[in-house]
Amino acid sequence: MGSFYLVRSVLVLWLGFLFVGTLCESQDDSDSITAVYIVTLKQAPASHFNGELRREAHGFKLGAAERLNRFNKPRNVSMSHENPDSYIARLHDSLLRRVLRGEKYLKLYSYRYLINGFAVFVTTRQAEKLSRSGEVANVVLDFSVRTATTHTPQFLGLPKGAWVQMGGYETAGKGIVIGFVDTGIDPTHPSFSDDVSEQSYPVPAHYSGICEVTRDFPSGSCNRKLIGARHFAASAITRGIFNSSQDYASPFDGDGHGTHTASVAAGNHGIPLVVAGHHFGNASGMAPHSHIAVYKALYKSFGGFAADVVAAIDQAAQDGVDIISLSITPNRRPPGIATFFNPIDMALLSAVKAGIFVVQAAGNTGPSPKSMSSFSPWIFTVGAASHDRVYANSIILGNNVTISGVGLAPGTDDQNTMYMLISAIHALNNDTTFANDMYVGECQDSSSFNKDIVQGNLLICSYSIRFVLGLSTIKQALQTAKNLSAVGVVFYMDPFVIGFQLNPTPMKIPGIIIPSPEDSKILLQYYNSSLERDGVTKKIVRFGAVACISGGIKANYSILAPKIMYYSARGPDPEDSFLDDADIMKPNLVAPGNSIWAAWSSLGTDSVEFQGENFAMMSGTSMAAPHVAGLAALIKQRFPSFSPSAIGSALSTTASQYAKNGGPIMAQRAYANPDLNQSPATPFDMGSGFVNATGALDPGLIFDSNYDDYMSFLCGINGSAPVVLNFTGQNCWNYNNSLSGTDLNLPSIAIAKLNKSRTIQRSVMNIGINETYSVGWSAPYGVTLKVAPSRFSIATGEQQVLTVFVNATTNSTAASFGRIGLFGDQGHVVNIPLSVIVKVSYNISNS
């Protein structure tokens, strides 16, 4: 999500959280406090029956025409989404009746595919009664969650690389269904039309979802592109915070975020992108021929809740999606349980077992260490990087000083013509004073100003914290300037807005926002020093400052991209009182996430500056994740039998560690002045590196892991056996060979506590041609490293075990980094990042 979006969303969600907390705490008797709980049963869910995964049979044998007819079938907009004929749902009802005899409660959902459980609104005392039932494995208090292009296909090399390998953009992603758990979708957007391609566009036979029909999402909203849409809001409604005047009780996107992310991954190719009357190119998703299924579980006024998100994930898996894209993260780690053991991650573990590749945004809580909000090894975590297209304009002052700024705006007509600068506070009419409008300098009301003073000049306005909070808007200031017949607008940054990063903002008239308070001071000093005042009255008698604005509509291209954005969350592991470190390297990689053009909902109100537009430019890990979801669709299309971990391996091992200029990828280290505070990126900043779309379609070797491996990892965490049993219904004694995070067959190695030495094994499979590989490595500081064999030949379909010997030489308090490279004689290169912290219990130098 964008910087502007991030600040507002956090404020809204925090206020919503306070409201719910206050409501509960107002009760006198703690036993009578009601809340939403997620209850997991010991019996396995439908997807685990007979020890194998199965899809629900209904819908799989329907013809394309029959499935399309189902989309437009009206349905009862019930919040429970419960199938009354479901055997598991009936078991849930029976359990509740038996345990809560005659007591009032409200069941919100029955989860039956990925986890066997339900969400229920009960008192604290009732929750305790449920937890004591022999059939119940776990009871968890519901928790809140939040939402965490035209050029990026070119930057990623798709037109001449990956798309060519897939037969062109016309077929890129064909037959693959991407499920989006987000804020919904605007079905009227041309990015989701099914009539833009001459190619056949059948609904995939393995997808069985439906299209909810409501007043806001009428019959005909779905098509062969947008093949499924539902919404989930029972937890929010039960809490009494669902605002029907702001939040659509339908799959329709009243926010904009969900429409944006869906189009990044799977939007149609070649859609003209016009904003504020300016043409910025043609938009395309990463996999423009893939299909979209929407599972709305987040809302603009309050965010979302885990109970609704789990219901959405459960339904998406049951419907048969191939990929789940999550641009959402928890507001905070759920209290009282280990990080990995929360309902969302446990549901996603079952989704991975079902063969679904899961992509999640890393979170926008960087750049501090261990700020990761997506941490489980079965989830593919994506951080945010810049790409090479940048928009910038500038103002040239009459004293020959040039100040850079942002603004998707035209310049003044003639660069040789200077226009008078007039500050809004010096153009007030006789009826306006600071006493009756202290924010008049923000130019929100044209009636406050004297048109005769402003007309034909450049109007200077203040950009304060009120713009960040949405109380004042650029759009209204532009309207003021237009009403006053100003040539253009110059916004200077209020010094109280410290370190705030601005995206380019669309403007129909010449305009610029100076994002730096220091540069804003330079502007104001020049302006004030050029004023002539009456010696007695001190009134202004002449405005002497002049300037012109250069245009910011045409993009420039930087050779310093990509770089890791300051807000992108950092690894390796989350802060967790249950375990010190899990030896899991996160993020997995980074992808374009900054200044991303993509579709916008026609009624989306999240970003005021893009209200009413068909496209918006947003920033955040929310934008990076769907890039990878779309690229994963291309891999799934090419390799239909790939497991989720194999898809992740293909993406990781081919990632690049270099910027466009050939130097190392840099990482921003500070929120304020991030480009002045950066250094080479480490694996904790970027994982394996920056995604390589074309390379991922031909990885040569892959690392593979499965559900049993992840269960062995969970069972290997000290004291976790009861928790594993509670969440999965499976005993750890079924997994005799417990695995540490270091021992999982991942395309990375992380050792948080190296004591003396460690031997690690990795297994690779050749999915390419017969090839001979040479092994090279660079050791992290404080260790020696050796890999055996150092050279091997491997035929197609064969496996090779690599043994990595790590020996400590010097104690260290911080992680150091290295890399293993496998170099094939047919051109394949496989990269494996390493991180090590040496913590030896004796003095190495005396050993």
UniProtKB/TrEMBL annotation:
Start and end residues of each Inhibitor I9 domain: 36-147
Residues forming the catalytic site: D182 (charge relay system), H257 (charge relay system), S622 (charge relay system)
Source taxonomy: Eukaryota, Viridiplantae, Streptophyta, Embryophyta, Tracheophyta
UniProt entry keywords in alphabetical sequence: Glycoprotein, Hydrolase, Protease, Secreted, Serine protease, Signal
Domain Subtilisin-like protease fibronectin type-III: 743-836
One Gene Ontology term, aspect cellular component: extracellular region
Locations listed in the record: Secreted
Residue ranges of every copy of the Peptidase S8/S53 domain listed in the record: 173-660
GO molecular function, one term: serine-type endopeptidase activity
InterPro entries: Peptidase_S8/S53_dom, Peptidase_S8/S53_dom_sf, Peptidase_S8_Asp-AS, Peptidase_S8_Ser-AS, Peptidase_S8_subtilisin-rel, Peptidases_S8_3, S8pro/Inhibitor_I9, S8pro/Inhibitor_I9_sf
GO BP term (any one): response to symbiotic bacterium
Predominant place of localization: secreted
Signal peptide segment: 1-24
Family of this protein: Belongs to the peptidase S8 family.
Name of the molecule in the record: Peptidase_S8 domain-containing protein/Inhibitor_I9 domain-containing protein
